[in-house]
Every structure is written in structure tokens, then in C-alpha cells.
Amino acid sequence: MIRTMLRIRARPGAEPDVEAAWRTVAGQLGAVPGNLGRDLLRDAHDTRAFVVVTEWVDESAWREHERGPVAAALVAALRPLTEPSGADDVLVMRDTPGAGSTIFVDVELTVPADRLPEFERGYPEVTARMGRVPGYLREDLLREPGSDLFHIFAEWRGEAEFFHWIRNPAHAQEEAGPIAPFLLDIRRRLFHRVDHPDSGRVDQPDSRREPSRGKETDVHTTTDVLIVGAGPTGLTTAVELARRGVDCRLVEKRATPPGQADKAIGVHCRTMEIWERQGIVREAMDAGIWLTGNMVFVNGHETHRMSWELPELPYAHLGLPQYETERLLTERLATLGVRPQRGAELVAFTQDDDGVTATLATQTGEETVRARYLVGCDGAHSRVRELLGLTFSGGLGRFPQLFMLGDVDVDWDMPAGHLLRFMHETDGRMDGMLVCVPLRGESRYRIATLAPPRFFAQTGGQDAPPGFSEELAEPTLDDVQAAVDRLAPPGTRVSNLRWSSVFRISHGIVDRYGDRRVFVAGDAAHLHPPAGGQGMNTGIQDAWNLAWKLALAVRGVAAPGLLDSYETERRPEGEEIVGRAVRMAFTDELDREDLKRQFLQEMSMLLSYADSPLVGESLAAPDALRSGPAPGDRAPDVGGLRRRGVGHPLRLYDLIGGTRHTLLLYADASADAATLAGVRTLCADVRRQTAGQVDVYLLLHPDAPAPAPLDPPVVQDAGGEFRAAYGVAGSALYLIRPDGHVGFRSQPVDADALGKNLQLVFRGAR
Q: Is 311 exposed, middle or buried (0-12, 13-18, 19+ CB in 10 A)?
């Protein structure tokens, strides 16, 4: 990716005209092929100075634009409004190393208007302190017009010196201390200087600055977290890290994104909740189709039917092809400044006490990457898993049958939106299966069934390749029709075959989910039969669990052992899901006695980390909080909350939907007065113990008097929904983790026990 930054200075009084001219041309820029972004920033210290920022998919797209009409139109519009610019006013960078020796770091942060004076007082002191840091050269403070978003755009002599500084947690107090409260939720991007096509030379650091030292390492690029594999698991990991301002790099060996519906198509309810937090749930609903229920037929007779539209679910079961899932996550990731590097394959890696050194084979040659952590999300044939020496517990299981998939139009009289399973049994043994999953489009379905015998014959009687097979011929429409004739209702016809494939089901789970600084997630860690669409959704849950812990580790505030909890919490869940999926693969239903509970379990709505060492409680009475979510359980959403100054009721997820832990303190009229009096002190202690990584709210029953202090913020449980769902009375607290699970609870408020629980998560929480 290429970024350009053009510094311009408006003529006196022409500042509004510059902004107007930019708005006119910016729309045209967005339509130029290869353009990824465009912004106009203002210098925070010079009201007449602006910086025009553009980003491009690659160098050729940028150069083509430079010669094109839109670039000419921008120059023509700005020339009469600005002072003449020189060659030094143009900066060209890329997000991978170039020939230049300097790097540029763009830190985006939010400064609320009411705290701007505080920021403006502290910032000059920070720049003065930074001037004494080895390798630091200079910086600009830029602001997005009409917003609270600022950019600290800093130039450093090289990567080694920058990362040596940033990885020392003490720097936040030593150099950035005066503005440290504004640096808790940031986005950081790193760029390398490159040639400008009109300069005829490689830009070097200003000759008046210190001479550049020789390279201290042969590492080509450096990042906090290297993620291998840009499927749903890898993309989710990257989104969650980027949302927290963690520098990450995502590489994918496939040169182009998938364009076929060849993988998962079912999105579970819990995944939809995650997507709501990530900001893509609306786009997913717009692109998908609701799966409203299922029906099972055995030997032509309906054995049961169930509606999946349960009123207690926040979302129903969505049908969405995996390539659409990857598109939505990729687009969301791009808004956070990260894009997958395609055509880059992991070759090898080594790790030491401080990080991981990985070798990549890219389209332009071999590249070395130094990262603090590596996450392998590279699928069923994971290179990361292989290099770590992980093995499948009990061996990798493979079904003896070959299966085929096809996307077709089906002409029949069946309820819309239902997943349909047709099975044939002889003497109580299943010998035929047809699964039909609705897709977006009229009468369109994904068909899965046993492959015709000729496909197995093509393998010479040996094992067929696991996964989706490219070695075998594609099934035809006649193959699909033959399976339908045998198993579907009489007269069913299929047409318009868009895509088909043959595949083999493998299943298993690795013995370990990681080793020191390297982790595996998704299909790299566990393989499932496709029953229930478990693979993709479980991988997303892996990433959801791991990313927030990695972010704390990168920031240096994670307690020892926090990253070990990833395996402790996720491997038992993966083991249970693999076993359940294998058992369900060739049965008409696993548990007919409680279909609703089974469905909720499939949707991950009953997922709990109750056995995790990270979770706990302190209860004064055995029946306290009995009706609320237990430690490790998913924290349910509730409505009816009221906050002063907000004209509409809030949801609990409006409070806990950020990227940090959330502490919910509750009190009603019977709460101890001393507890309410100590809320402010408790709030300050928690923030101090956790380096500001916990948001705190005081939830009050309508009959409880509101305390005078506004810290923590007060929210009224106006409808009593929180009280009912969480079983609270008197005084109580719930600590909700960033993944939406209960980390700790107590009734009444137990500050000492809470502090001990925080020690399990945060370094320095004492």
C-alpha cells in the first residue's frame, strides 16, 4: 500500500475555500481505481496549514493517478488558494520497507472537546521529552477538520530504535506521561519512506540531523503480531487487535480472495453478536438470508421440524457464504488501516524470549518479519501447526466416504428458509444423506451428499485428499439430480449448477493451542465435520478470546499466565464441539428430548468458561446472584437503561461493547451507605490497578438516590431489566471481560476479592 502526504498552506483567509475545494475533488478521488483512502488534515499549530493524504493499493495505481485527470483537477483547484509548494512538501511512503532509512509512525487518537485544554497543556511537554529519545527525529500534530480525531505523525531514524522505545512500558510515564490518558485507545500505523517519481533520488533524513547508523538487524519488517491466514479466524484476530491500536500484519498465501461459496455458510447467533461489536452486523444481514428452522426426513418421512426463530435470541441463524464473510471482515479491517498481504506464504519461524522471527515467501522474494507474537490461522493444512510440531490428539480422523457439494436451484414445495436433511436408513444404518441449506436467491440451495462411486474409484481405492479436492473432477448436474431423486421428495428437480466440488471430512483437535509466543486458532487447531457449520464460528470464537489477551500482553499490562488461559478456555470447547459434530454427522438428531437447548448450544449461546482460572466470585449468601450469569458465562444484554442527557433508553451492550473490561456496580435503596460512599475510591483504585483498562459504571435501581460525584458515570436501571436478568439486590458488582463473558461477580461489593481477580489478568494489579 502506498500513502502520499502533501503539505499545503492556504493564502490568508482562504482556509474555508481550501476545505471546499478538497470536498469537491475528494469524491472524484474515491472513484479512481486503486484508491483506498483520502483525507484532509489540518496542522494543529498552524491554522493555515493542511496535509492532503491519499492511500493507494499499490505503486502502479498511485503513479497512474499522478498522471491522470483527477490529480490535475486537484492541483488546479488548490493552486490559486495556496502558497507555492516545494519538493520537500511531498512525502511518499509504503507500509512495507523501502530504500529510505527513516520510518514514519501515524498515531490516531481521540481528544474530546471538553478535555482539549488538558491535552494542549501536556502535549508541548511530551514533544520536549521525546526530543531526548534516541532515534526520534520530529513530529507533527494534525487534526481531522470538524472532529475530535488527532494524528501524531512522527519521524524516526529507523525501526529498531522505534520498537526499542515502544516496547518499554515505562515510556508511557517517562515521555508520554502528560498525555497518557489519551493514548489508551489508539490506532497506530507504520510507514517507510520511498522515492517520489519526480525527485530522481531516494529521500534521506535531513542532513542537519544525526547521521543514520548502520542497521542493527537484518530483519526487514517488524510488527507486534504476525497473523498467518486471512480467513475468518485470521481476519477476526486482526480486526480485534487493530481495534485496540495494536500493530499487526496479516499474510495470506492465496494471491486472490475466494470467489466461490465453497466453505461455511452458517453464521451463529453468538457470531452475530460479535459482529455487532465489530460494526459489521448490519452489512451481514443485508448480504445474507435468515435460516428460520430445520426439518429432518428419514426414509421419506418427516421425523421432526423446529423453528429457529426463538424470541429470546438477539439474532437468528444467518446464512452467508464464507467468501462474503471474508469480504465484510476485510472491508472492516481496511477501515482500521490494515490490509491482508496476499501471495505471502510462511516458510519458517524461530522464537526466543522476546519474540518470533518468521520467513515469508512473497511475490517479490523472501522476506523476514520480526514480531512479538505469531498466530497461525492458516487452516486445515496449517504450516504454523506443522512447524510447532503440534499433533492431533488421538490422531487425525477421516471419514471413509467422499462427499460432494453443489450450488443449485431447487424446484420443490418446501418451507422457505429451512435447512433440510434427508436421510435413508437400511436396517437402522444410514446409507444415504442429503443436506440442503438455503442460499440467497430464489429457490437456491447448497446441496451436500455422498459422492458417486466413480470419484472414489479415481483414487485407486486409496485415501482421497482431505479437504476440498482439486485433483478430482467436478460433479455434474446429473450427479446432483441422481442424489435428489433418491432422497428428496418425488418430483424434485434441480437446475442451474453454479459450482460443485468433491471433499473428504477430516476431524481432530491438536494437543496444544500454542507454544510460548506462537498460537494456533480455527482450523489450524481443530477440524470438524460440516454439521452445524461449527468450523468457522468456532474459529471466530478462538480469535475473539485470544485477541484481547494478546493486546494486553503487547501493551505490557498482562499478568503472567494470561496468554496460557487461551488454551485453558478454548481447547475444552474445541474438543466438545469436534466430538459433538462427529456424533451428529450421520444421525437424524443428537438429542430429541431437548431440541431447543441443543440449538442454543450449537449457536454458542450457552458457551461458558466456568472452569477457567481467570473467573471467580464472592458471595455472602449461597443463593446470592443465583438467577444471574455465573462466572465464565456469556453476559446477557438487557434494555431499559437510562442515562442523564440521553433521550432514549440504552442497552447494556452500549456500556460493555468497547474493547476493555467493564465493571458494573449495582445498588438499590437497601444498599449499604458506606458502599455507595466508597464507589468513587473503588473506581479510582481499579483504574490504577489496571492501567486504565477497565470502564466503570454505577447502575442504580430507580429507588436508589444518585450520589453527587459523576465518577463513575451513573446509569439508572429504569425498567428493572438488569436487576431481573442479573439477580442483583442491595449492592453487587459484575466484571465483564472484553469478550462479553463474566470475569468476576460479588454480592455485596467485595473490593478486595475483585482486586485479587484483577491480578489474574493485569500485571501490577496488587
A: exposed
State residue 430's pLDDT score: 79
Stretches where the chain sits below pLDDT 50 are 99, 196-219, 461, 466-467, 589-591, 766
Same domain, 419 and 343: no
How far apart, in whole angstroms, are the C-alpha atoms of residue 612 and residue 570? 10
43 and 57 fall within a common domain: yes
Residues 330 and 381 in one domain: yes
pLDDT at 262: 57
Answer yes or no: do 366 and 440 share one domain. no
Helix, strand, coil shares of the chain, percent, nearest 5, are 30, 30, 40
- What is d(CA 466, CA 504) in angstroms, rounded to the nearest whole number? 5
Question: Which residue has 428430548 as its cell numbers?
Answer: 593
What is the distance of C-alpha 314 from the center of its chain? Answer: 20
Q: How far apart are CA 177 and CA 169, in angstroms?
A: 11
Helix (H, G, I), strand (E, B) or coil at 231: coil
Report residue 604 CA to chain centroid gap: 17
- Using DSSP's 3-state secondary structure scheme, residue 243 falls into helix
Omega prior to 712 cis, within 30 of 0: yes
Q: Is residue 594 assigned to a domain?
A: no
We report the CATH number of the domain holding residue 387 as 3.50.50.60
Supply the range of the domain harboring residue 467. 399-505
Which pLDDT score is estimated for 173?
63
In Å, what is the CA distance from 448 to each residue of 122, 132, 405, 432? 62, 65, 5, 11
Q: Is 461 a domain residue? A: yes
Residues 621 and 581 in one domain: no
| Residue 494 covered by a domain | yes
CATH number at residue 739: 3.40.30.10
pTM of the model: 0.71
Determine which helix (DSSP H) or strand (DSSP E) holds 652, and give its type and residue range: helix 652-656
pLDDT in tens, 371-409: 999 999 999 889 999 999 998 886 666 665 778 888 999
pLDDT at res. 210: 34
Q: Which residues contact 279 (CB under 8 A, 6 or more apart)?
A: 332
Kindly state whether residue 607 falls inside one of the protein's structural domains: no
Q: Are strands 694-700 and 526-527 parallel, antiparallel or unpaired?
A: unpaired
Strands (E) located in 669-756: 694-700, 714-716, 731-736, 742-747
